[in-house]
Amino acid sequence: MVLSLANLAMLTGQIGKPSTGVNPLRGQSNVQGASDMGALPDVLPGYQKVTDNGRRKAVAEKWGLADLPSKPGLTVVEVTKAASEGKVRAMYVMGENPRRFARWISWSYRKSF
To answer: How many domains, in total, are found in the chain?
Structure first.
């Protein structure tokens, strides 16, 4: 639904004008903006699936690359589990505190980042 609302707002020119736009309520600060910019593990900017060869190659070309990985990355749950198993050797975390957002993952209290 959020994607549909964002598309509608863009199609009707309701972005960047006073008292317009879309305000989806999310659990953490700026998660919507990060998602829109392609910070999710399975999409590129604009919610284009990394598994879509045509879209992936078009984004790669815009970015001056030959191609981009076609396999989706790990979700926050998967990456924290992989880190606890020693499969992730490093994480660069900005604007978040894994010990805060991963309260439900007990290992996050036992490990240092």
So the answer is: 3
